[in-house]
């Protein structure tokens, strides 16, 4: 079986459940932003010399598959959205607690680019914010109904910022 199906050559693609939509559909834009976010986190992970942090990033990449899947479900088909529940947000809250407890995290904004892995995390954070904006638009239009996805992405952008600062702090 080839990865090339040619079924999207005309500008449409399939959602979960098989319905076809335009590749310009906002849900496909959300998939793309989540895919891009996962790739940037993977880049950061590949550059990261901190094994503990790299492990956390790998777990987040795996969770992003669930987040992306939530946008592919019809609003009445919330099975995928239920996979993004309070427990995944709680894991991110725990990352926030750990990073803030480590100390050395600036209280205000920081310039990016001090370390390659931290810079990659800062790029991932900006992509996460874009994915969050798309998710808000989907929620407001009724195309996707998953408040936990919004909370997850909001918290994840904080975590990515903190992880970048944590890497910089540990490098000093």
- The count of DSSP E runs of length 2 or more, i.e. the number of strands, is 2
Order of helices and strands: EEHHHHHH
What's the quaternary structure here?
single chain
Helix coverage percent? 55-70%
Order of strands across the widest beta sheet? Answer: 1-2
The total of helices stands at 6
Q: Give the amount of beta strand, in percent.
A: under 5%
Uncertain stretches of 5 or more adjacent residues: none
* Molecular shape: globular
Mean pLDDT: 87
Rg, please? 17 Å
Distance between the termini: 50 Å
Main sheet properties = 2 strands, antiparallel
Structural class: mainly alpha
Comma- or semicolon-separated keywords:
mainly alpha
Brief sketch in words of this structure:
The protein has helices at residues 26-47, 51-72, 79-82, 86-102, 116-141, 147-171; strands at 12-14, 20-22.
What does this structure look like?
With 172 residues, the protein is mainly alpha-helical. Helices cover 67% and strands 3% of the residues. The protein has helices at 26-47, 51-72, 79-82, 86-102, 116-141, 147-171; strands at residues 12-14, 20-22. The protein has a two-stranded antiparallel sheet. Helix 1 runs antiparallel to helix 5 (116-141). The radius of gyration is 17 Å and the shape is globular. The model has no long low-confidence stretch (mean pLDDT 87).
Ordered list of secondary-structure elements with their pairings:
Blueprint (H helix, E strand, L loop, with lengths): L11 E3 L5 E3 L3 H22 L3 H22 L6 H4 L3 H17 L13 H26 L5 H25 L1
Antiparallel strand pairs: 1-2
Helix pairs in contact: 1-2, 1-5, 4-6, 5-6
